[in-house]
Amino acid sequence: MDVLTTRIEALERSVCSAKADPPTANLAEQVAQIERQLGRTLADHTSLAQALKKYEGLRDVIEGDGDLELSRRLLGVTAKAELILLNDDTAKIMTDLHTISDLQPRINQPEYATAAKLASQLNTLEQQHGEQAAAFKQVVADMSSAVDRYHAETDALSEIFLRWDRVLTSIERKVAELEATRQKYYHEDVAYGYRVPKQFEYPDYSPEQLRNRQRQAALVCLVGAYRSIGHRATDLDPLHLQKRLSIPELDPARYGLTNPDQQFNIDGILAVGPRGAPKTATTAEIHKALVDIYCGHVAFEFEHIPDSAERKWFADYVESTSKDSALSSSKKRRFLELLVKSETFDNFMQKKFGQVKRYGLEGAESAIVALDELFSLCSHSGITEAVLGMPHRGRLNILVDLLKYPPRALFHKLRGNAEFPDNLPASGDVISHISSSPSLDYGCQEELNVTMLHNPSHLEAVNPVVSGYARAKQMYLYDKNTDPGCALGDRLIGIQIHGDAAFTGQGVIMETLGLSNLPHFSLGGTVHIIINNQIGYTTPATNARSTLYTSDVGKLVNAPVIHVNGDYPEEVARAMRIAFEYRNLFRKDVIIDLITFRRWGHNELDEPSFTQPQMYNIIRARESVPRVYERKMMEEDVVAAVDAEQIRASFAKHLEDELAASKDYQPQADHLKGKWSGLEMATCAITQPETGVAKETLREVGERSVSVDRAFKVHPRLIKHHIQPRLKRLAEGAPIDWATAESLAFGSLLKEGYSIRLCGQDVGRGTFSQRHAMFVCQDTENVYVPLNNIGEGQGKIEVANSNLSELAVLGFEYGVSIQSPSVLPIWEAQFGDFNNTAQVIIDTYISSGESKWLRQSGLVMLLPHGYDGAGPEHSSSRIERFLQLCNTPMDMSNEGATQNPNMHVAVPTTPAQIFHLLRRQMTRNYRKPLVVAGPKTLLRLSAATSTLDDMAPGTTFQPVLPDVLTKSPEKVKRIVLVAGKLYYDLAKAHDQQPAEIKDKVAIVRLEEICPFPHEQLARELGRFSNAQEYVWCQEETMNAGVFTFVQPRIQSILPGKHQLSYIGRAPLAAPVTGISNVFKAEQAHILAAIFADI
C-alpha cells in the first residue's frame, strides 16, 4: 500500500501553501485525506468494527459549515485516531488539531498576507514616502511584526505537520501490517509455490530533510519536474529525426528561481555529489546538474511508480551516480571489441551469404554491449543462471559474438544442411530461431550459465516461455537449496529482448507482464531490452502506437523505464547498470528502451527507401556505431587505429577458417542431457505401460486428499458433499467419481517423487466446483493443500490459480514443461474453447517444438468439452484443430506406415481412464504433450464412475473401450463408433430399445484419437463378424469434432468394401446452435437415427 508519498506531498503542499496563501482549503484537503486513511485502517481492523460504526456518524450529527465544520471534522478524525494509536502521540494529535482550528481563522486575516506581498508594499512605500521616515518606520515595524507573527504561526503549523507525519507513519505501519496479514490469508507459506520476492526497504526523508523541502518549495518543484518529464527534453535519437523539445516546466524561472547565484540547501531535494560533501549549490549549478542527469543521452521514467521508496531510491541513485560512471580502459576495450566483431560478422555475412535474410544488428550494435554488461553484472552478483528470449533481429550476432555458438555450425546450416544429426527425426528450423546454452566466464567463482530459448517467428511469443522456463528452474534451484534465505532472483535472472513495434503491438507483452508480480509466476524481476529501430517493418512509430514511447505498455506493472541513445555504448552500459541495480534490489521488472536504427530494411533483401526515404538518406550518410566509438577510443588514447583493425582482421580470419571447416562439420545432438538424461526419443512402437497402483496406496492417497487438521474450518457444504462422500466411497469400496480418480493419480505420482504444477483459472476449486485441491479456512482464509501432506519424501503439487490469461499462461506452462521431465505440468482451461486465444503457443511450441528443436514436453492440456445446451461458446474445445496439427498417417494399411505422433489427443469417458492418462505422462520414458477433451457433465454422472480395481496393478489406459451393451456379438448388424460423453446418452437410449434392436447395435468408444488406435480398433471390430454397417456418431457438427480425422483412418481398417457413415449434426459456422429447442431436437434426432432402419 502506497500512502506514504501522497501523504508527504500533501503535507509539503499544506506547509508551503501556508506560507503563500490562506491555508483553509488546503487544510480541508489534508483532513479529508487523513479521514480516508483512517477509514481504510479502521475498515481493515476487524476488532474496531463496532467503534467504526459509532464514530462514523459523528460528522453527520454535528451541524455547521465553514471553519467550524472543519474544526469538527478534525475532532472526528481525532476520535478515530484514538482508537488505533494507543500511544503517547494521541494526545499530541488532539492538541494539534485544536491548535490548527484556533490558528486557522487568524491566518486568514488580512494582516497575515504573504511575505512577498508585504515586500511589494514596502518597496512602494519607500519610493512614494521615503521622506516620511516616521511613517516608513512604522510600516516596517508593522510589516516585521506581521511577518514574525506569520512565521510563528506557520512554523507552528510546520511542527504540527511533522508530528502528524510521525503519527501517520505509525498508522501506516499498522495498516501495512494488516495489509500484509490480509494478503497472507489467501495463500500463505504452506501453499507450495506461493513465493514473493524479498522486500527492499529504503529510508524515507529525515525530519530535517522534510523541513528543508518545505522551506525550498520552488526548488522541490523544479527538481520534481526534471524527474517527471525531463525525459521529454533528452537527446535520444541517433538519427536526430526526433527534435529535442523545449519544455516550459523545466525552466527555473517558472518557479521564481531567477537568480543563478542564489545558494540553496539541497539536502533531501537533490542527491548530487559524493557522500559527505556539502549539500549546498547555486541555482545555476543545480540547473546544470539536472540537465546533465535527466536530459542527456539517457532518460528516466520512474515517477509513475506508486511506491515512494522505489521512486526515492531511483532518483537518489541516478543523481548520485551520474558522475561516477568512469569506465576502465579494459572495459572500454571490451566494448570496442564486441562492437567491431559484430560489424565484422555482419560484413562477412553480407559478403558470403548476401541472399540470406539474417536480420543483422547493424545500427543497434550497442545492444550487444548492453547484454554483455548485464551478464557481467549478473555473474559478479552471484547469479549463476540466465534465461534469455529474443526475436530474430541481431540474434546471429549475439549467438556468435557472445554466446559461443560455433560459426561453422551456422555456416553448415546456411549451406542447406540440418542442425541435427541426420539420424534424428527432426524437421529443423530457420537460422533466426536457433539457440545456444553456453557457460560464460566473467572472472567470478562460478560461471554464468545462459540458456537462450528457441523462438518462433510469431513476435514475442517466446516471452512467456522464457518466464515459465526460468520459474521452473528457480523452483528447482530453490527446492534443492537448503539455505532458507534463498529468495526469488538470487541465483537466476530472466532476460527478454524485444522489438519496438512488437512490444507495443503484441498482446502477449501485456499478458506476460501481467504475470510478473504474481506469487505463482514471479521470477524476482526480469530485465527487458527493447531494440528500438524506430520503425516496424515499414510502419513508422506514428502509425505503430498510440503512446509517446513504445515502452509505455510496461507501465502496466509500474516498471521503471530507462531510455538510452544507442549511439553511445558507454551510456548504454550505464543504463544497464542502473536497471540491474533496481532489479536486484526491488526484484521487479525493469525496461531499457535502446533507441537505435536499422541500417537495412526489415531484412537485408528489403528496400526501405520505398517508404522511409528521408530516414534512410540519413542512415546511409552516417558512420556506423562501431566506427564512431572506435574514433572516440582513439581520441581518448584507449586504443590505436591499428588495434581496431587487428580485431577486425583477426575475427574475419576466424570466420574464414570456420567457413572452411563447415564443409566437414557434423552437428551434435544437444537434447536429452542434464535432467533429461535417461529419457529417450519416442519410437514408432506405441505402447501402453502399466500404470496401476496398489489399492491400499490408492485408499491412503484418497483419504489424505481430503484430510485437514481439526482446527482448520472447512466450508460445511464441502464436508457434506465432497469430503464425507469421498471417504465413504473409499471405505466401502464403492465406485469413485472423476475428481477422486484425478486426486488418486496426483497423489500416487507425488508419492513416487514426481512433482505437479496444476495451473489455470480457478483450478484450485475447479471450474465446476469438483476438484477442491485446496481448502480455504472459513475463519482465516488460510489455504491448505492436502496432497502436499501425504508422507515423507513425496513430491509437491503447486496449485497455481492463474490470472485471466490464456496465451501467456499456456506459454508459461510450456516453458515449465521443457525445463524438467520430473514435473507434470497441467494447464486447465476454464472452458475448452479458452485455448483459442493461445493458438500461437499451440501451433509454434506445443505441437511442433520437438520436431523443430528436439525439445520434449509433457504438458497436459485439460479442456472441458461437451455439448450441453449452453450455446455456441464454452461447448467445444475445438478438438478438430488439435487433430489437424497431429502428424499420424491416414492409412496404416500402406506398407511401412508407422506413427510416432507429435502429441496425444484423448477423450476419456471414465475416471479410471483419466487416472491412467495422467500417470502415463510420467511413467513412460519419453515426454509428449497430451490434450484431453475433458468432461463437464460427466464429473458427477453416476454412470461415469470407476472402481479401484480399474486402477489396480496390471491395469492401464485403454485407447479403445469395447462394447459392453450387447451379449451376442454375432447378432450385431450396426457398429456405432463414438467418442466422449455422447456415449452415455447412446447407452441410455440403447437400454430403452426393444431386445431385437439392442442385439443388433454395438457401441464402441474411442478414448484416444491420436495416436489413432488402429490395432485395438481393428481387433474390437473383428469381434462382430456379421456387422453390415459402420457408423461414426458425434454430437459436434460434421465440420468439427473428430470425424474428419477418424474417417479416413477408420475407413482404412474396415473389412471388405464397407463405408463409414456419419450420424451427427450438419456442418455449421458456429460450434452449435444457441436456440435451445433446436438443440434438443438435433440431439433427439441423433439418438433416434442410431437405432432406426436396422
Topology readout:
Blueprint: H1 4-18, H2 24-44, H3 49-56, H4 58-61, H5 66-84, H6 89-107, H7 115-129, H8 133-185, H9 207-215, H10 217-229, E1 263-265, E2 280-282, H11 283-294, E3 298-301, H12 308-321, H13 329-352, H14 366-380, E4 385-389, H15 395-401, H16 407-414, E5 439-440, E6 448-452, H17 462-480, E7 492-499, H18 500-505, H19 507-515, E8 526-532, E9 535-536, E10 539-540, H20 541-544, E11 561-565, H21 569-586, E12 590-595, H22 613-621, H23 625-635, H24 641-661, H25 695-704, H26 716-732, H27 738-751, E13 755-760, E14 775-776, E15 783-784, E16 797-801, H28 807-817, E17 823-828, H29 839-846, H30 849-853, E18 860-864, H31 879-884, E19 904-906, H32 911-923, E20 930-934, E21 960-961, E22 974-978, H33 982-991, H34 995-998, E23 1001-1006, E24 1008-1010, H35 1014-1021, E25 1029-1037, H36 1043-1051, E26 1060-1065, H37 1076-1090
Parallel strand pairs: 4-6, 4-7, 7-8, 8-12, 11-12, 13-16, 13-17, 17-18, 18-20, 19-20, 22-23, 22-25, 25-26
Antiparallel strand pairs: 1-2, 3-11, 5-6, 9-10, 14-15, 19-24, 21-23
